[in-house]
Amino acid sequence: MKKMTRIEALTLAMNALTDNAEALEVLTAIRDSIEKANNRKSDKPSKSQLANMDVKSRLIAQMGDGNRYTVAELVKALDNEFSSQKLSALLRQLILSGDVVREEDKRKAVFRLA
Length: 114
Description:
The protein is 60% helix and 11% strand. It is mainly α. It folds into two domains: 6-40; 47-113, Winged helix-like DNA-binding domain superfamily/Winged helix DNA-binding domain (Arc Repressor Mutant, subunit A, Orthogonal Bundle), CATH 1.10.10.10. A two-stranded antiparallel ribbon has the order 1-2. Strand 1 (100-105) and strand 2 form a beta hairpin. The radius of gyration is 24 Å and the shape is elongated. The two termini are 39 Å apart.
C-alpha cells in the first residue's frame, strides 16, 4: 500500500470540509506552500555534490594506472586531503555507478577501475 503524501491528505481534508470556508482557506494556503517548496527543488547539483564530483574524478585519475588500492593508500595518494570515511563514501558511489570495482585481498578491501 502506498503511503499518503501531505498534499493528498490536505486535498482529502479540503474535500471533507466544503462547508467551512475559513478552514478550507487555511488548508489551501498550507497545500500551496508545500507545492511551492516541492517545486523549488532543482535538478542542479548542490555545492557539496560539485565538490564531490571533483574528488571522484581525482580518485579515478589516481586509479588510472590499473593498480589496486586500499582506502588508506588512496588517502596518502591524495596527500591526506580527505578522510578515509569520505573517500570510502565516494568509492561506494563510484562502485554503484559501475566505475570502480571492490575486491577483497586477504580480508582487506581493495579497489580498482572497472
